[in-house]
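Deviations from the work plan: none for this task. Representative record:
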Amino acid sequence: QKEVEQNSGPLSVPEGAIASLNCTYSDRGSQSFFWYRQYSGKSPELIMSIYSNGDKEDGRFTAQLNKASQYVSLLIRDSQPSDSATYLCAVGGAAGNKLTFGGGTRVLVKP
Amino acid sequence: DTAVSQTPKYLVTQMGNDKSIKCEQNLGHDTMYWYKQDSKKFLKIMFSYNNKELIINETVPNRFSPKSPDKAHLNLHINSLELGDSAVYFCASSQRGGEEDFGPGTRLTVT
């Protein structure tokens, strides 16, 4: 069983729509949760971090965490073609700084 | 520019050779990492150093040896390269675990 699971996509959304990405994790002791964006041929860049249950908003991005269901999601509002990328969910374990990444969801925003 | 830098960007070599990748960060972070991203884009941690001390050592063949001469530098030496070592290797640093700044990556191709 994979420790962090994401739908690989591609998730195709029209420009201006909301993109909804989901991620589940297996380690119930996980303490920290992150979303990274990776453009093709580039390095991952952190776009959101969330540490407690509920929603966290930053611009057009909203991260949602539900520790009871072991589920974290990312919403991208008013999607733009520049949002087309692979989005990596990463989970920090209880034991320290180790991050476990999911396989990523590829998002395609069509004009 | 404040950043994480890696050299070389591309590395093409034959099986059995030994090669090194260098990484430097000028962000003042205490922790540095090596990640491997395979052809399926799966990103996995290999090693982590905190202030020159090895704190994460994942199940990696002992042909891979990290070295941290100071907290701003983390190098990766690979002995007896194999075809399966072909991947993109990312260096990263962080001050707060999980909130990694990634370098541009080194694409290693073993022929």
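The radius of gyration of chain A is 13 Å.
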